[in-house]
Amino acid sequence: MKQDQSVFLKRCDSLPFVEMRRADRSSACYHTHSHDQFSFGVIDAGRADYHNRQHSRLHTNRIGAGTTVTINPADAHSCNPLAGSWSYRMLFIDSHWIGELQQQMFDSQRDDYRAFPHLFRSDTASYQGFSQLFQNLLSEPDPLTSESLLIEFLAQQFLPPQADLSQHLSQHQPQQRATNPRQHGYGVRQIRELIMDQLDSNLSLEQFSAHSGLSRYHLIRSFKQAYGQSPHAFQLNQRINQAKTLLQQGQSLTDTAAQLGFADQSHFQRNFKKRMAVTPKQYQAFFV
Predict the structure, then answer these.
(1) How confident is the model at residue 83 (pLDDT cuts 50, 70, 90)?
(2) Long-range contacts of 271-274 (CB under 8 A, 24+ apart)
(3) 218-227 long-range CB contacts below 8 Å, 24 or more apart?
(4) pTM listed for this prediction
(5) I need a labelling partner for 68 at 20 to 30 A (CA). Which of 100, 124, 211, 248 fits?
(6) pLDDT of amino acid 80
(7) Would you say 21 and 69 are in contact if contact means Cβ atoms under 8 Å apart?
């Protein structure tokens, strides 16, 4: 049977609880259905009628390119092109993983999950954030980077703007557990020291969390407040700084990548160029 070339399906290599789907100029239509996972994605081209039965009420909207769609587990829905074909990308995330993340976000021990607050969003930031996340999940072999970006994107979807956050939590979490800023400060300093001491080690977010005593969500948030970067971005930045020194000393690209914990040379080159705007080879040519 010939495979439909317009559809791409893949389980994420770095995060096995994430499934990916991309449709390019597809004319396929879907019957009303639901998923066990949380699902969300963007429309890249075309327009569609989006039907979603949430909280026993059917919502019908016409959406188009640039729209970010969010769907909760068990919500009956369908989304089909108005005419011709459309292009879109979707992610399907294990509901238990998101439930644990939400407990950390809201400092809550609720067993049930929280629904997405919107059926869809039309803002550019959501579309661009999803595009960055999707591309990263396709190409990034490091689970620390992938999981951190996923958590940061979901925080933007589930949490209100920062200015409204304290009011939102007081209204929805009357039994919210108090947090200790001093404990957070000590925890993030521990993680910074761990990164610097083991720059070549590909430690996971779960390992960082266990080492610091902070949840994955609070670790990312507190580390970013303290150092201006999330742990994975800080780690990559320090690796690139060290790579510059090694390249200036004449060390080969292959040895530099291996010594600093990059998955392979292409992984090293991609991240080096993002931060230096030149490839490692071009950079080294200025000094050696």
Answers:
(1) confident
(2) 271/236, 271/239, 271/240, 272/240, 272/243
(3) 218/104, 218/179, 218/184, 219/187, 219/188, 219/191, 220/148, 220/151, 220/152, 221/155, 222/184, 222/185, 222/187, 222/188, 223/188, 223/191, 223/192, 226/185, 226/188, 226/189, 226/192, 227/188, 227/192
(4) 0.87
(5) 100
(6) 86
(7) no
- Cα 57 from Cα 51, distance rounded (Å): 10
The per-residue pLDDT for 113 is: 85
Per-residue pLDDT tens over the stretch 95-122: 999 999 999 998 887 777 899 999 999 9
> What is the total residue count of the chain?
288
Provide the sign of the torsion angle of the four alpha carbons 200, 205, 211, 214, taken in this order: positive
CB atoms within 10 A of CB 54: 16
Between CA 190 and CA 176 the distance in angstroms is 26
Confidence of residue 246 (pLDDT cuts 50, 70, 90): very high
